[in-house]
Amino acid sequence: DISHLLKKDEVLTDEMLKVEYTTPKTILKKRLHPSFMSIPDLKSSNFEDKLY
Description:
- This is 5300_t:CDS:1.
- By secondary structure, the chain is an all-alpha fold.
- It is about 40% helix and about 0% strand.
- The protein is flat and about 35 Å long.
- The model has no long low-confidence stretch (mean pLDDT about 75).
């Protein structure tokens, strides 16, 4: 479940995920892609700040 990674009003369907991961990306997009960023600690006091 990745719901904790989404903003409160954000929705991500299976179809949207498939498109995201199957669409070819430029080198710049690969570098900026959030999957390369570390996942913030859920128990951290500043979790919301680090998430966005």
